[in-house]
């Protein structure tokens, strides 16, 4: 929020009549990730308040690349890749808004004003580049542009900054001006790393149409260690179920540290502060039950993947942590591969006389036969959660193979292998 704007003025404006707010999403990948969720959830809060919400897709600005929060230039994407990414991100947004309407706020979902999803390519393709530089570019001052934090950090780095990315703030500024003219959009929200771009838009609008507009930034959520939230070893938790399964998303939040969970409940869920206080009180009474983590995981998985996604995640959790083979029977081949993500998958022909030892070697569970004999006989080998110690036991369909013609093998505590049987 800009310092010369009193909070009371904004509150009066919001209470006076429905306002319009937007947030932008550039197509840098074929899915949004957990790091984008805080902005999306903020848009949902605006929608709950009766306001008009716009999600802007950067079909044009995706060709340029936002330097904010970057140490190097973004890799240039082809037009085909950008168009594919746009469609995928559009589906992400539509799914989250629909899940919120159906499952998170069903009692009032029908009264929500639908989100408007727009693509800035639709107006840039109609603009003459010379005219754009003449009409819009003259409103920007080099000194001001150079002082932006996103620019300073790059100019002073070893790799420097390209003119393409330096000009990005002009395009994001014009996006806001366009939305103001088309939809009377007075508010823009974004992560705290977007402050420079948002302030540039504020300045452009002040110079050209002399209307009051307001920028709001949200914190970049990080772990206690300072890592960006939703990323682990450089790999994002994606909102697309094909890239990150509902189970993986669910488990990520179930494993939230006690020191982080209350803050994340406030940021990422729609529980009231009173409800969160009650949730944390229950946690103090029975910390081993991880009740706040379950509440966080339940609501976020429902928001991203719907009730079916949550059911799949719970079913998968049961399959992993339950010792009951029935939990595995409920999963199909695709479910098992998602649940045991990264587990080697082996296709084997079911023939008479295959022993436990031979199965372990055929599935490449052990480096050598002597290792296999030692580990199996010591009780470190499992088939469908059942410990098998007899290396000569013969594999049969009734005893060792699930109705879906799959066997789940485990060596030790965490090394899983999936066998798909061909009959």
UniProtKB/TrEMBL annotation:
Top EC group: ligase
Coiled coil: none
Keywords: Aminoacyl-tRNA synthetase, ATP-binding, Ligase, Mitochondrion, Nucleotide-binding, Protein biosynthesis, RNA-binding, Transit peptide
Gene Ontology CC: one annotated term: mitochondrial matrix
EC numbers on record: 6.1.1.1
Tyrosine--tRNA ligase SYY-like C-terminal domain sequence ranges: 335-419
Molecular functions per Gene Ontology: ATP binding; RNA binding; tyrosine-tRNA ligase activity
GO biological process: tyrosyl-tRNA aminoacylation
Catalytic activity: tRNA(Tyr) + L-tyrosine + ATP = L-tyrosyl-tRNA(Tyr) + AMP + diphosphate + H(+)
Subcellular location: Mitochondrion matrix
One Pfam family of this chain: tRNA-synt_1b
Known partners and oligomeric status: Homodimer.
PANTHER family referenced in this protein's UniProt entry, alphabetically: TYROSINE--TRNA LIGASE, MITOCHONDRIAL, TYROSYL-TRNA SYNTHETASE
NCBIfam families named among the record's database cross-references: tyrS (TIGR00234)
Family listed: Belongs to the class-I aminoacyl-tRNA synthetase family.
Function (record text): Catalyzes the attachment of tyrosine to tRNA(Tyr) in a two-step reaction: tyrosine is first activated by ATP to form Tyr-AMP and then transferred to the acceptor end of tRNA(Tyr).
Official protein name in the record: Tyrosine--tRNA ligase, mitochondrial
Organism: Parnassius apollo
């Amino acid at each position: 929020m800009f310092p010369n704007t009193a909070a009371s003025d904004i509150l009066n404006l919001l209470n006076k009549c429905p306002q319009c707010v937007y947030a932008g999403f550039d197509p840098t990948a074929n899915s949004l990730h957990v790091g984008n969720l805080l902005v999306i959830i903020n848009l949902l809060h605006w929608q709950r308040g009766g306001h008009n919400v716009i999600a802007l897709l950067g079909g044009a600005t995706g060709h340029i690349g936002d330097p904010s929060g970057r140490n190097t230039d973004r890799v240039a994407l082809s037009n085909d890749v950008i168009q594919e990414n746009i469609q995928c991100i559009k589906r992400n947004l539509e799914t989250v808004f629909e899940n919120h309407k159906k499952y998170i706020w069903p009692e009032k979902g029908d009264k929500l004003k639908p989100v408007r999803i727009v693509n800035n390519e639709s107006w840039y393709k109609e603009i003459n580049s010379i005219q754009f530089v003449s009409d819009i570019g003259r409103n920007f001052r080099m000194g001001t542009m150079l002082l932006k934090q996103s620019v300073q950090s790059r100019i002073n780095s070893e790799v420097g900054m390209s003119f393409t990315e330096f000009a990005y703030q002009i395009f994001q500024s014009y996006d806001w001006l366009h939305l103001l003219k088309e939809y009377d959009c007075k508010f823009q929200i974004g992560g705290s790393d977007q402050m420079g771009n948002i302030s540039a838009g504020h300045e452009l609008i002040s110079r050209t149409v002399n209307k009051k507009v307001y920028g709001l930034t949200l914190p970049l959520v990080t772990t206690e260690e300072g890592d960006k939230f939703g990323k682990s070893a450089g790999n994002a938790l994606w909102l697309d179920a094909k890239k990150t399964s509902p189970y993986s998303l669910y488990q990520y939040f179930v494993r939230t540290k006690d020191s982080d969970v209350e803050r994340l409940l406030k940021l990422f869920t729609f529980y009231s502060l009173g409800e969160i206080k009650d949730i944390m009180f229950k946690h103090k009474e029975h910390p081993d039950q991880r009740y706040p983590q379950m509440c966080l995981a339940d609501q976020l998985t429902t928001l991203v993947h719907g009730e079916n996604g949550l059911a799949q995640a719970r079913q998968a959790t049961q399959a992993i942590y339950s010792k009951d083979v029935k939990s595995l029977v409920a999963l199909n081949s695709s479910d098992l591969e998602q649940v045991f993500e990264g587990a080697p998958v082996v296709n084997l022909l079911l023939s008479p006389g295959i022993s436990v030892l031979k199965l372990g070697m055929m599935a490449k569970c052990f480096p050598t036969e002597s290792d296999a004999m030692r580990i199996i006989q010591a009780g470190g080998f499992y088939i469908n959660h059942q410990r098998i110690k007899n290396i000569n036991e013969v594999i049969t369909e009734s005893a060792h193979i699930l109705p879906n013609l799959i066997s789940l093998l485990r060596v030790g505590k965490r090394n899983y292998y999936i066998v798909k049987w061909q009959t």
